[in-house]
Design brief:
The structure is a homodimer.
Chain A: E1 5-7, E2 11-14, H1 22-27, E3 37-42, E4 61-65, H2 73-86, E5 93-98, H3 100-112, E6 124-125, E7 135-139, E8 153-155, E9 160-164, E10 172-175, H4 185-203, H5 210-227, H6 234-250, H7 256-268, H8 272-280, H9 288-300, H10 315-326, H11 329-336, H12 340-343, H13 346-355
Parallel strand pairs in A: 2-10, 3-4, 3-5, 5-7, 6-9, 7-10
Antiparallel strand pairs in A: 8-9
Domain Alcohol dehydrogenase iron-type/glycerol dehydrogenase GldA (chains A, B): 11-176
Protein name (chains A, B): Iron-containing alcohol dehydrogenase family protein
Pfam families (chains A, B): ADH_Fe_C, Fe-ADH
Chain lengths: 356, 356
């Protein structure tokens, strides 16, 4: 048996209003006059006050990224080239400011600036050869755990799969709960549910150990304080839930919901948050208590999921989703154990997708 | 307002039996034939099976350390010199194997090998100039949180005070719950209570934020599973409680119990674990619920604390303890807020010590 040597984010700033300290964090990386920083910022912030608070210095690049669709390997390669075109020198830091997609883009660009040949070839586990550029994550949406994880999930030419490596992990994260206030309610809910679902998948998985369990149990309690109790400190609590959910997954694995959601997302383009909710809502056989509580949370917040999305799709479209979902070996192993291949049948998956 | 940029342990192995992976962890640091590792090992292990499992290679130094008394700056300086005498080259890693005292010795020696002039001059906050040698923590007693903290507490010529710095933090910890099985019951209890007390002090402190709170709340629940429920996985749970308690403190601060215990420990030589228990037992005015639950845990495990330790001590001995305790500004600020100096009177402290 081999034990995972878990690489965590080594530096964390947590606190309401702590965004003001981003400048001093980056100052430690700026050593010569031509050192510069690249800020990758979710373009929803272009018209918001945060745009004026980005601590830029001479020579820095601020690049607004569109994440209406899930990040792709092409997008990462394009951004990497854009950074390289402006300066022959590499930046001293890449800062991602946004939700999970933007954070994953920042991680991927920081990696690709030091690893040649296009990001698609690094989709998988531990294929990265060289350490990334120093990179910083500043979440403005909470739930995915991207701030804590060792992956950057990308849609590539043949698959949706992450750049999973120790080098992917942020060098620094800054968790300022003021930044997640005021996001659209549906996005808040769907992204928050990603965290809740992480916990359910982790706690019901075969990979669970006491480390992952402690984090997942606490993240789940925090989710309940946010989505059931409507706690006064819910922004801080959701930020911690997302981080702790990510810490749990880093030492365990997601499960059936993410496997189904990946199929849905890759073929139909559903974003990760809503895709997970659509998938989770048909998984009562896998996670009965979790799905029941999830539906109660939807009720409380008047969230209505789209229905009949897959009911009338052509068989070959469903077959493609089934194939993508089935290819998620580690996720299904977490659900069923080593014997998963006997249990994850085309028929079972087809039935699930048809109900979405 | 300034927010702490919290340096965490960047690499963590967790799991029963994971000690076998220490060799491969160290292999990554060994680059040339004359690279060597220093193992600082609590001397209780000298006659135990663990002694034969230490993954030594040619040129490595295994140094058994005695921690019957709390670690001192002299001890650290002596160990540092011992390492330097054997080889003109620095080790590639310093590995601490033992309880909190041994882990603190390992942290301190790793620092002092790169920072000249004796450890006493670095007692305080952020006085370390140069990064430490790569250092690894392998706890064999759980509770203090030394595996997660940015301090190495030492008794020096004028004070008991830690080497507090980002460089103090371990580069790697290995949490193998098999290693904490079979320690003497009193030591198990007193050290475990250090974790419980951390949580109480953190959760009742003025420095608390949601990060520290989430960790302390979970660590406290884990302590209850260990010390009240007698859970089947109690070794794993205590190991996680200790780690999470340490993570909580790193972002908050200890409180009245540690301040009193430091006075007791410095003047009378009580070890940290039992010292905290002695102090906590007279702090019902500060932490009523915590002290009540602590006493219930003592009852359950038939732990009987020594009594009347300070009752008949000379006034000047008590005055010395009071002075040491009073000097712990940040701890008292965590208890009372900015106004602490008006509240921490000699009289109040004297009364507390006389009851111990």
């Amino acid at each position: 048996m081999s034990f995972k040597n878990f690489k965590c984010v080594p530096k964390i700033i947590f606190g309401r209003g702590s965004f003001v300290q981003l400048d001093s964090v980056l100052a430690a990386e700026r050593k010569t006059d031509d050192d510069f920083v690249v800020f990758l910022v979710d373009d929803v912030h272009r018209q918001r006050p945060l745009a004026n608070r980005i601590p830029t210095h001479n020579g820095d690049q601020v690049i607004y990224v569109n994440v209406d669709d899930e990040p792709t390997t092409d997008q990462v390669d394009g951004l990497t080239e854009q950074v390289q075109t402006v300066s022959h020198k590499a930046p001293v830091s890449v800062v991602g400011i946004g939700g999970g997609s933007t954070l994953d883009l920042a991680k991927a660009v920081a990696l690709m600036l030091n690893n040649a040949g296009g990001s698609a070839q690094y989709q998988g586990w531990d294929l990265i050869n060289h350490a990334a550029i120093h990179h910083v994550g500043v979440p403005t949406v909470s739930g995915t755990g991207a701030e804590a994880s060792r992956t950057a999930v990308l849609c590539g030419p043949v698959q949706k799969l992450g750049l999973n490596s120790d080098h992917t992990v942020f060098d620094q994260i800054l968790l300022d709960s003021e930044l997640i206030a005021g996001i659209p309610k549906q996005q808040w809910f769907y992204t928050g549910m990603d965290c809740y679902i992480h916990c359910i998948e982790s706690l019901n998985g075969t990979f669970l150990n006491e480390f992952a369990k402690a984090y997942a149990e606490k993240a789940m309690l925090l989710c309940r304080e946010v989505f059931i109790d409507d706690h006064a400190d819910k922004d801080d609590k959701l930020m911690m839930a997302s981080f702790m959910g990510g810490m749990s997954i880093a030492y365990s694995q997601v499960g059936a919901c993410h496997a189904v959601s990946y199929g849905l997302g890759y073929v139909l383009g559903y974003h990760h948050g809503i895709g997970n909710c659509l998938a989770f809502n048909v998984l009562e056989d896998f996670y009965p208590e979790g799905v029941a509580e999830f539906r109660a949370m939807m009720n409380k917040h008047n969230i209505v999921l789209p229905t009949n999305i897959c009911k009338d799709l052509p068989d070959q479209t469903i077959a493609k989703m089934v194939a993508v979902s089935k290819s998620m070996g580690p996720l299904w192993e977490n659900v069923y154990g080593a014997d998963w291949q006997n249990k994850v049948t085309d028929e079972m998956l087809t039935q699930l997708f048809r109900r979405i």
